[in-house]
Amino acid sequence: MMKLEQKIKQQQKLILTSHMQQFMQVLQLNNLELMETISGELESNPFLLEESPLPFREEWDCSKPRNFLSDFNIEDSQQDSPSLMAQIETQITLNFHDIMSQSIAKHMVLFLDEAGYFRADTKELAQSLGTDVENIERILKVMQSFDPCGIFARDLKECFKIQLEQQDEITPMINKIIDKLDFLVSGNMKDLLKESGSNLAQVQDVIQKLRHLDPKPGFQSGAQIGAFSTTTIVPDIYLDIDEHGRWNLALNPDLMPRLSLQQELFHRSLISNLNKEQETFIKEKFATAGGLIKLIHQRNETLLRIANEVVNTQRLFFTQGIHFLKPLTLRQVAEQLNVHESTVSRGCSNKYLATPRGTFELKFFFQSGVTDTDGDAVSAAQIIHKIKDLIQHEPSKKPHSDEDLTVMLNNQGIKVARRTVAKYREEAGIPSSSVRKRQKSL
Length: 442
Description:
By secondary structure, this protein is of the alpha+beta class.
């Protein structure tokens, strides 16, 4: 016989009010999505007044990085093929396991053009991030192995070489012919044969191979990268340092149209002869307009609070570079601001901060790490930087083993396990001590 019992169970449950649900939706919107929401409401709501015009959308300037990650709406693309940006982000996660490399890789995506070429100077990018060119080149080399084949090439020659390498078709002779591609394009066969040291049959064979390659991998069917042809990175927030050394955060004024309520129109409408249905409609529209203004104000205030917390934590990055990024989690920021973790997550999603070092997605500044013996946070980026420095100054005849590096880091107050050191060393592209010893002896 079944026995019925009553039990009291205490359970924590997050219940979102209607206002909070609307706030979360507005908070997650990127710049263009918010502008579109405002434009749509201005067209349909007579009680919402725009006191300053919405900013004009400029055409893409090829000298600026592209905002692929925030301005593309997947729902606007074909549902049976994922966007190229989604494919790339997945490949970044699979190929880079340390947060620093992932952050750099995701930042490098912003410099892809619509054809799939990487359009940034690696020296300038390294200087901006405060890292070395070798690190940028290492990450770029991995990204050049991504699908679609040939993406992240810096020019047509490199695009062809990447594709032939992945097909295991590349040879020194083919390399020489591709290096003289300008002669081939101009039809200068005489100089092409002379400069490449090839004969006509070899050149014709290479031409046949090149005809089967994709010169613009970003335009591949299903890649969807062409949908970004007129988008730009539009920062949500600006970080400036004034002449007194003070750090100032401000919302992008071009994205903040001043909205107000048509109070007089609302009151005139109410005193006119309306039936119950018309009166209800007018009151709902007026409430919607007022609610949107409050939501936008709350969104902007939350963005500034999140950005302020991020900047205060990551000040060393702005003065010394990426190796000085501190560990930071969404939960830490949420606790500091006394908000839910999901609020911080939505506030950082597709939001960009323009700084003296360049423009970065807010998520770029969130890093994993450990705590040292003094209780201070040490990020994975800082640990990798210290490992590189120790290896750079190691004895050539007796390179430091992973165990040696672990002891040295522990002596500096950074408590990490040997396997963690080995993982960071490998992710930084540094060979083992035995391989380094052979390399130095050669």
